[in-house]
């Protein structure tokens, strides 16, 4: 199995911690599944920390430090601030895998809105009070299916 | 409960069928849940047909015709071609609900890619061999949560 | 005093209700302050309903109908759906007044983020669980000052 | 409490002073609230100086120098020019917190204009003769609310 | 001498009043110089009213009505609101004459900023408390020179 | 009085000479007014040379060399080519001061065109056979006004 | 031989005169070569008048009126103003023929600048004091070659 | 006479050979006219080689090596690949000289197409089977005129 | 089997002939395969004529007229000009099928260039002296494969 | 014959492996045809590996290592991750050869869609389950023709 790695020449906008974490991950030959298990978080959240898209708690930092053998002080310094989210993907995404997700929004955006509005009223599904996960299914013909679940709190528009 | 409607002055790029279908839906006061049940399809797919983003089968046309009391010949003519997908949402989306989905792709795009690649290898989750659904959950504190599931076939890159 | 009006040749993307409401407002020579008072909402919210950017409740519809002498059935039909927000302003805004607000975000965006993060932790100020108001102050030199208040619920990023 | 920090790999367009100031702030473990108090300015203004979006007066420089233990000559050289504002945020903002502010402008822009025009006449709210502040409120249910106030001088369009 | 006219098929975003005013101007064969003189305003301001970029006072409306023989009620209705400025020119401008002005900003923008900052301090030249005029000069070789003067109030950034 | 300086981390596209000249200007504590006087050119032109937007003549080079104590050979090498104009300002300008100039073009572009065409015929005001200057006026209330004059040769379109 | 025609559904931004002129040209089955000969202008200039990109003199109007049998009053009204140039081609051009010209600028732009600067000094080739023509050459192998000549006055940058 | 030079800080996307060639050209004080003569090519083509926009033949490399005293092995390595054309000019061009050429395409694009189509039929003028040259003319009044000739093979669209 | 149809509300930029041809095609229930066979052209070319992207010869017009029962004079008028190509697809394409082709160019563009350059030298594959076809293959597992062939004349860059 | 090379100053976004592989290719003077033969893959696929657009299998890595004399550990480290596709070409492509492919999509996009839909139904040609090849043909007149074949699995839209 191949592991996801980081080529910093292709991602000049990532925070310094991304290089630190990915280098250690490659050296340790760890998958995000293993890392997630170790720090008690979801795989996508674990990967998001590596890409500077999610905040690591002090416990996450301690656990990442021990698992990846990175001095805790280095991680504390690099992960102590607040993530500056949204810089990894240039929109529209050029990467085919990420583009497919973008295309789903482009094609089904108003269908989602219509169904959500009728089910919940006037509001939005939060992307902040939000979690997500990725699962793998294999059907009886041996085909693999990826299942991505998005779960967000419903926020009704305030009346004022 | 309010129903999703269409204001054609705001959607000049939708196909002619969208006006036909939404007008009838408003007159009949039907939700997409009711329409979906009647035609035996998922709510999101039903809404996608209304927005010209999914193909209606001959049975769908017959069922929509009877439910909405639109002459079958009208629907056949308007729905007989192939959808010209992607025109409903101008990217980046200005609509707050749809923007939240776009933001999820922007923030978690590379995290999804890393996790999917490690789980499945080099490839993509198809947005064509694909289905999606929307569910409503209410937690013990009475908060509502929207759950969107994306399920796509895994397509490995061909070796050539 | 002049009143805000709508020239539909300049706003082709507004919903049909905008023309209905603005035409009646002009005929009745009512300000948004008067309209807001009558329907018991904030002036900005009242104007947002006119621009199709906020949802009107059944009571709002009834009140607008009586105040503006628009048949209630017309307003019910035009306002029964869910607002398709975000279409009024093309970004970056060309209108000087609106541009100044955009410029404030452009100049102080990261300063707001830094201060908010330190005060509240990792999260965002909601633009949905949100209200806003406009006030006028006159200083001792007779200069007028506009004061815009933005008040949004703090949403911490979920840990997952 | 976490402190806002600067990862210069993510902000290549900031002035040299940003790195100087943020490095010292991190070493001293000071919040913008503490810094603002020390230099007698608003928190947002203090953060804006750090991001190169506001001018520091000679007294500000002296105070920052003593508080942060940066040689005054260094700060004088780096802060002596005129800010080149607007370079920190790439529009539309990708950062979720900043995007919410942008979205408020996008959704309520014309509502603000209508209300302001009716209250003040033909003109704009200045973003230059302008101040802003951030406050934290907690409601009786324990929810936190962020309150951002924008206060700008009203400038009527000259008649010529 | 030719007169400036309006071809509405090329300017679909202008307010309704533009067509009214330009049609009457063409019928009356009046130049903006003549119109400006009649209403006691600058030529550029007069033209700006025609393009919906400046507000007409009640006296302007009365004067335009009598000069152009447009019923005053028509002009009052079309000019009573607040201008929605900025929609006439799509940026970057394609029109060669307007592009030259844009190019001056592009080439000399920072030079203006440096000189203005050194002369006035940290601030901007207002485009609202602002007037402008166009003059024609002919040098001794018979060459014509256009002279455009921009005069705006200096607004220093507030300290807060 | 503060002097305009250059922070090269914010202007990566300027020619090498900009750093050379601005560094010397800061060391000598000279304003553009002083520099302009010394080389016998307008302030805006002097600043434009510093930003690589205007050509320096051999005499300018000699004068700048002596005033700023930069070896003449260095300046000759860095200033001997032809300016590659237009790279300093990214359009639309993010800098508030420069944006105001841009906004003037956006708002008054067609008004200028109409007035210029009626005064001069079919053509443009040259931005090449062109000079500009900045002046400061103070009115009786003590308010400062910036006056920018643009003077360009009128070029009629050739008939062919 | 086919003649160039106009399909107004594809050119919604052209002035009203374009439809008038092209309709008459099609009815009369005239080429631009014939039209140009009749009005004593270059073919490209003749076509440019048809596309609203060049001004027609009173004689041109009289000649076009007689040749195309369009009432002179109609042409006078439609052609009396000043062309609003630049609206025909959306840049980058999608049309393959026009794209090739664009590509020449993209590929050889700096080579032209270098050669022109060395030949003429610091300045530009005017696109206003400018003429152009199209010629056809056939080589000995029977291949056709298009030759486009651009001839513009050299304008040196003013020293100020 | 000034010579065209290269400031690599302003052209970060040029190939490595551009710096090599321009540095030698400056040291040798050679114009493109002299270089072109020496290698037996057109001036524009010579400049295009310097900007990485044209391929140098082995003879060109040998001639450039001897003229510019650059070791032939260096030039062979840097010029042996295939040009990656189009990266020098960012479109729309900000440089005034290059913009004028762009503007000619914008204004006369459809006029060229109409005339070329009528003269040659359905096809394009090739920008590949293509040559170009720059000439200088001086009229009897002493005015200089730049003449740019574009000559491309006519390619008819294939019928299939 | 469904047939490709045209919904003109979604394609406002197509030429008038597109509506004429597609309406007749729908009425006659003809596929592009049948139409192509009848007029002796490739299917893609036939469809391209319908979308205004290819020129119809007089014989094509006669054949289309008889097959589709459209008066020949109508087709002659609508098809007599030269196609204004490139307006059907807005780039980047939103339509998933067309996007896949775009993605192939995005991903393999430089690989194609490298291989073509090594095989043919410095030049391009013409898109004008060009033909294309679509074929259907079914493999032994019953999967369908689409095969698109692009065949263009190799054009070497001219040496000048 | 010239070989395709890489000038990293023009491709700053390529992965580190591109420089490694292209440097070795240049030193070994190998064409992609030779490399492809050696690793048993198609030429385009081989070039795509060099540009970071295709995944190399462990055997590919071993074969490339031996052919190019690059230590296997270096290649393993640089090629072990998953390609981050789509970053090589900035769209729209400026390179003339790649632009021609883009233009084919722009011109024939809807024609392909219509023909493919009629032949296969509602779906897309996969760009993932996909292979491509380049061939050279010479006709009897000695003209060279490039033939590019695109072969992708047909994916019907799922019904849900």
UniProtKB/TrEMBL annotation, chains A, B, C, D, E, F, G, H, I, J:
A Gene Ontology molecular function term of the record: cyanate hydratase activity
Record-linked Pfam families: Cyanate_lyase (PF02560)
Catalysis: reaction(s): cyanate + hydrogencarbonate + 3 H(+) = NH4(+) + 2 CO2
UniProt keyword annotations, A-Z: Lyase
InterPro entries membership: Cyanase, Cyanate_lyase_C, Cyanate_lyase_C_sf, Lambda_DNA-bd_dom_sf
CDD domains assigned to the protein according to its UniProt record, in alphabetical order: Cyanase_C
Source domain of life: Eukaryota
Enzyme Commission no: 4.2.1.104
Residue ranges constituting the Cyanate lyase C-terminal domain according to the UniProt record: 87-160
Entry function: Catalyzes the reaction of cyanate with bicarbonate to produce ammonia and carbon dioxide.
PANTHER family for this protein: CYANATE HYDRATASE (PTHR34186:SF2)
Recorded family membership: Belongs to the cyanase family.
Protein name: Cyanate hydratase
Protein source organism: Aspergillus avenaceus
């Amino acid at each position: 199995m191949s592991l996801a790695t980081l080529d910093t020449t292709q991602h000049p906008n990532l925070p310094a911690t991304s290089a630190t974490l990915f280098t250690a991950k490659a050296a340790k030959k760890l998958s995000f599944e293993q890392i997630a298990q170790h720090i008690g978080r979801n795989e996508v959240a674990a990967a998001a920390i590596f890409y500077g898209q999610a905040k690591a708690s002090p416990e996450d930092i301690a656990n990442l430090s021990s698992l990846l053998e990175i001095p805790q002080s280095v991680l504390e310094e690099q992960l102590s601030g607040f993530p500056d989210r949204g810089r990894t993907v240039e929109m529209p995404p050029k990467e085919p895998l990420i583009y497919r997700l973008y295309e789903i929004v482009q094609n089904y955006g108003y269908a989602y809105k219509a169904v959500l509005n009728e089910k919940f009223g006037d509001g939005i599904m939060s992307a902040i009070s939000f979690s997500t996960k990725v699962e793998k299914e294999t059907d009886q013909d041996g085909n693999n299916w990826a299942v991505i679940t998005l779960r967000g709190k419903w926020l009704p528009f305030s009346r004022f």
